[in-house]
């Protein structure tokens, strides 16, 4: 395993609560929490609202903890990228030790609370998600291979499985398909972004696909992953796991996703500022998951 990158000099100022909040990557967390909540609400049976709330809180805290540990480890890399240089550690607003203690404390608290107040299965899955993001993705794969997000991205696919396991104590076919869906969604989501922020990753020495394989190969990969993504998104409908509300929404959204991915694949623009299809696909990828998971919950409530 690689040693932690060099530590930026801190100004020694006391960190504010806002800096601790920034460590948790709150904007990314909104979609993590939403997909977890949808997994919980789509599960069969009735969930005690107090247990449901505790489960979602633990997932949010666990995801926040892994974001903090990611930033603790990557302080040196974040300092080299425009997009991340303003984060609390590279900007010198927080000591690295504080981020480590905050991340470890929050991770332990979230897993223990999940085990005590929800169930052991969801506590085990939460532990795997945190370790996957921090150790497998951040420490192991990200600095080594351009396939980092394909395997490492599985960390972000656990939330619906977590929500379902919290509600039922079981893992079944539908949440496994939802896991696969986010797993296949992550490469187009991230590679679209990495195309228009490529110089940042090159500067930080991270082997992201556009840096290693070039724009053309990355654009092709975006389209390649979008095809099984679309199939996986629609699959719950013909399998009889959802009704037409979800099925038709998934088909329409996925068709639009494929169209945007095809525009990315055929784009020849090399200037990052002018990469419109890539920006469109990245923005749409986020809307796609929000609407798809929203439709799933409505569908399961209507057809329950
Ligand atoms: C390894 C997998 C992933 C990578 C490498 C990745 C990377 C990124 C990056 C670099 C950004 C740019 C914004 C920022 O600096 O925070 C971003 C934005 C975002 N990501 Fe991902 N992402 C991944 C997986 C996910 C997953 C699984 C989710 C949720 C289910 C997600 C949700 C979001 C959201 C909501 C934003 C927009 C945040 C904003 O408004 O700035 N991402 N992602
Ligand atoms: C416990 C649990 C449910 C965990 C979920 C983990 C999670 C939030 C996964 C999403 C993956 C993510 C934000 C990657 C960011 O990539 P990066 O870290 O390479 O981005 P950066 O360059 O912005 O640091």
UniProtKB/TrEMBL annotation:
Transmembrane segments: 28-45, 51-73, 99-117, 123-141, 148-167, 173-197, 222-239, 245-265, 286-303
Note: Carbon 2 of the heme B porphyrin ring is defined according to the Fischer nomenclature.
Record carries keyword Cell membrane: yes
Name under which the protein is recorded: Protoheme IX farnesyltransferase
Protein family: Belongs to the UbiA prenyltransferase family. Protoheme IX farnesyltransferase subfamily.
GO molecular function, one term: protoheme IX farnesyltransferase activity
Record EC number: 2.5.1.141
Pfam families: UbiA
NCBIfam families named among the record's database cross-references: cyoE_ctaB (TIGR01473), PRK04375.1-2 (NF003349)
Membrane topology: Multi-pass membrane protein
Gene name per UniProt: ctaB
CDD domains (UniProt xref): PT_UbiA_Cox10 (cd13957)
UniProt entry keywords in alphabetical sequence: Cell membrane, Heme biosynthesis, Membrane, Transferase, Transmembrane, Transmembrane helix
